[in-house]
Structure formats: C-alpha cells, structure tokens
DNA sequence: ATCTGGCTTTACGGGTTCTTTATGCCGGAG
DNA sequence: CTCCGGCATAAAGAACCCGTAAAGCCAGAT
C-alpha cells in the first residue's frame, strides 16, 4: 500500500488531464482523473484525494461551486483555469481555494504549487490515532482495543475513522453523514445514533460512561483524544 | 490595541510600498513598511506581523534568503516580485513561501491572496481566544474555564463563539441573531438576554460584576479581551 | 432454500434545550 | 416625580435531541 499523496485532476480537456497526470506521476504522486463535476464529487468521496487540481469550465457545473464542497473535506484545492479575470481569482480564493493558476501554465510551477498546497493542508497527522485503549489505524483500516483487533462493519468503521481523522474536534452530523453515507443521507441523523451505539458497544468498557465517542448535542460527535 | 492582522511590506520602491500599504489599510489591516532586508528582519522581530509581502530584489540581500528566516517565525510569506522565471517561483515556494505573485500585479488579487495566506497559517494552530480565565477553542468547539472544560448548549456556544471571533469588538444584536438563530429571528433580542445570562452563569465567577460578556446598551454585546 | 450479519427504518421514554412570557431594576427624559 | 426604554432575571411549557430497542430488508454465505 502506497502512502504517496493522491491528486485528483478535474478538467474536461483530455490533453490537460494527460499532461498534468503524467507530470504528477513522474513526481511520485498517485493521480485520479475526472472530466465532469459529477465525476469529481464521486472521486472525492471514494478515493479521498489529498489535493484537487480544478478547472473551472466544466460541462455540467461551474467549478466554483465545487470549491466549498471540496474544502469541507479538508482537501487542498488549486484552481487551474483559463479565466484570468481578477474577479474570478478573488471569488475562488475567497471561497476557500488554496491557489489559482492560469492557463497556459508552466508544469514545474504547478508542481511547486501542489507541494505548497499539500504543505498547507497537511493531513500528515499520524496514521494511527490513539484514544484510551483503542487504536485506529487509518491506513490499514484496522481497529484494536487493548491490543486485540476488533471487527467493525463498514459504516461503523467509517464513522469512527471520520472522527479519528480529527481527534478531539467536533464533527458535525452532516459531515459524518456525507462522508460515510453519502450526499443523499445528510439529513438522516438516526443512522448516526445507531452507528454510535454499536461502536460504543464494541469499544467502550463501561456502558454507562461514554468515554470514547462523545456527543455534542445538536451539533455532532467527537472522539476523546486521550 | 487592535486585533486586525498586521502585514509587513518589504520593497525598495516607495511607490509600491505606498500602493500596497494604502490598499491593505483600506481593507482593514495594519501595515508596516520596510525598504531593506535589514529593516525587514528587525520589523519581523519587533512588530510580529502576521504576514509578509516580500519583494525579492532588495538592495542589501536577496529576498529569497529571508524566506526561511520568516517562515521560522511561523509567519506567512507572499513573494511579490518582478522575476517571473519558473525557476524563481519553484525555489521560492520550495523554500517555504506561501504564494508567489509577479509584478505588475493586480491589487485586488494580492488582497485575496493575502486572505488565503492568512487563512493557511492560522489554520495550523488551533485558534484559541482567551478572555480572563476562559478559553474558547474555535476550531475544536471547546470552552474551558480555569482549565476545566465547560459544556455549552448549541446556542450558548454560538453566541460566545461569535463574540470570540472578534474579541473586544461590539457585535450588534442583529449580527448575533443572524449568525446563531438565523435570518428569521434577527429581531428577537430577548433570546440574546437569555443566552447571555446562561453563559454568564457558567463562565463568570462573580455574578454581580459582568467581567466577561459586557453589554453595550442598545447596540449589542462584546467580549472583554483582557 | 435457509441462515446470518449488516443496514435501514420506525418508535418511544427521558432528559436537555429553546422559546415565550412575566417581573423587577436602573437611569435618563419629560 | 413619574414614565419609559433597555436590561437582567426567573420560570414553565414546548420543542428538540439522544440513546435504546426492535423489526424489516437485503445480499452474500452456507
């Protein structure tokens, strides 16, 4: 299993996909390509890239709309667009984009800006998160409690992993649901309760005192760091 | 004392210092100017800016040499240079610069990039606002008083967080209501009183002297920065 | 075909939080 | 002095949210 950063390239021109893709792979990154906004969103959910190179002129939606959605996942966004109007740059950056490069671009410069963006949004948190006697290994998708491996169902693991990715921070209901169940279920808060319950059953020693997965009423859940 | 971000502008051309300085100040920042690398370094130590706009062509030293020194302080660096060679950009970015803009530049774009850079370098630390013995961690959504965690209901936290986002400044009734209760309740000032009361109950030691959340009659509330 | 584990969906009791309304205090205006 | 606006306080019912339980459903395994 590789640990190289994964880059999602979104552009409707195949030539650009190829150009950027090969340059990035030569530089040691893994890459995913998407030609439409729809493709980009599913790739975002499934492949969990570390950064996105985003063209604004997509066939189905304006790339700008994607920026907040991508940033909500904590992923770096670099706009690569032919639009060079200042207003475009300003709105893109203010929507949360991490950088803005205009076409035609210099490949080496884009690579340097990718490095910078990855540095900024370093998801470089240690791959293994510890909380009490529970350890979550985010790369191997394994969970142990007091050293013994615990088997988790897909949604259970998704729930826990999403919390473990930002230990101690509150993850909102919507964030969890979007990450684990998908955009279609962002409102189904009940799922979270069920998942939390089964997780606590498996991971918490004392059923009466929730020491691992804590509830933030009306907002979301969070993992107790120590 | 103001809490607006402080920007250090380093350039040997007075015209540019003036241009950027006035633009930034119009945008609400505080600015410091430096014409040489030496001046820049002392300003860095004394004024503790939040970001540096750095020209590379300085009379005494090459601006590139300054980049690592500035980044060592955890301060954002945006290069603003006439050198547009790709190699320059790559080395600057790889030395740790957060962005690179070529002259002639568009002022609005530079402002947007300043905002982005500030966002990046602030995101690294978890943003904690202190007021007396109360600490508000805006990224983790946690509040402590004298080190002990205090649990806050959603509206309570929203109220406090809105104040903490601009410590010391008066937040109007309408602003608070819009931010926490939503557009539909911008007129329900009563809610604020109730929320303020329960917050004071939880956070203030002396019930008779409101030392944390102060009322600005007829206008709004503000957090005493301390 | 049957079983089983996992996911979805619905329901309910108990606790917390929000909203709403009423009351008293204070200071400035009339 | 009295009135009035703006405020803090208080309390109570409504609304909301949570954990828990359980039943139905689906798909893959047996």
What does this entry show, briefly?
The structure is a homodimer of 226-residue chains. The first copy, chain A, has 226 residues and is α/β, with parallel strands linked by helices.
- In what order do the strands lie side by side in the largest sheet of chain A? 2-1-3-4-5
Radius of gyration of chain A: 19 Å
Fraction in helix of chain A: 40-55%
User: What number is the mean pLDDT of chain A?
Assistant: 89
The proportion of residues in beta strands of chain A is: 15-25%
Question: Low-confidence stretches of chain A at least 5 residues in length (pLDDT < 50)?
Answer: none
Q: Total number of β-strand segments of chain A?
A: 12
Largest interface: A-B, 29 and 27 residues
Ends distance of chain A: 28 Å
What would you call the quaternary organization? homodimer
Structure commentary:
The structure is a homodimer of 226-residue chains. With 226 residues, chain A is of the alpha/beta class. Chain A is built from 8 helices and 12 strands. The first copy, chain A, has helices at 14-26, 37-47, 63-72, 86-94, 107-120, 154-164, 173-180, 189-203, and strands at residues 6-10, 30-34, 51-54, 76-81, 99-102, 128-131, 134-137, 142-145, 148-150, 171-172, 213-216, 220-223. A 5-stranded parallel beta sheet of chain A has the order 2-1-3-4-5, sandwiched between helices. A 4-stranded antiparallel beta sheet of chain A has the order 6-7-8-9, with helices on one face. A 3-stranded antiparallel beta sheet of chain A has the order 10-12-11. In chain A, helix 6 packs across helix 7 and helix 6 (154-164) crosses helix 8 (189-203). Chain A is elongated, with a radius of gyration of 19 Å. The A-B interface holds A 86-87, 89-90, 93-94, 96-99, 106, 108-109, 111-113, 115-116, 119-121, 168-170, 216-219, 222 and B 86-87, 89-90, 93-94, 96-99, 106, 108-109, 111-113, 115-116, 119-120, 123, 139-142, 153-154. Chain B binds a DNA duplex (30 and 30 nucleotides) through residues 153-156, 188-191, 193-198, 200, 215, 217-218.
């Amino acid at each position: 299993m590789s640990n190289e950063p994964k880059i999602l390239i979104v552009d409707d021109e195949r030539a650009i996909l190829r150009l950027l893709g090969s340059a990035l792979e030569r530089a040691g990154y893994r890459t995913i390509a998407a030609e439409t906004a729809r493709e980009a969103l599913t790739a975002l959910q499934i492949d969990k890239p570390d950064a996105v190179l985003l063209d604004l002129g997509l066939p189905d939606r304006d790339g700008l709309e994607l920026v907040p959605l991508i940033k909500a996942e904590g992923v770096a966004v670099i706009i690569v667009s032919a639009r060079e109007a200042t207003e475009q740059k300003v709105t893109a950056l203010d929507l949360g984009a991490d950088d803005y490069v205009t076409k035609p671009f210099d490949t080496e410069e884009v690579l340097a800006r990718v490095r910078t963006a990855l540095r900024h949004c370093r998801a470089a948190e240690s791959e293994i998160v510890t909380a009490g006697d529970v350890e979550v290994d985010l790369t191997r998708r394994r969970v142990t409690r007091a050293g013994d491996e615990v088997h988790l169902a897909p949604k259970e693991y998704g729930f826990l992993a999403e919390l473990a990715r930002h230990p101690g921070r509150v993850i909102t209901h919507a964030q969890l649901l979007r990450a684990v169940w998908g955009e279609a279920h962002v409102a189904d808060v009940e799922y979270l309760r069920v998942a939390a319950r089964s997780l606590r059953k498996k991971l918490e020693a004392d059923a009466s005192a929730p020491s691992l997965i804590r509830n933030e009423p009306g907002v979301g859940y969070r993992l107790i760091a120590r």
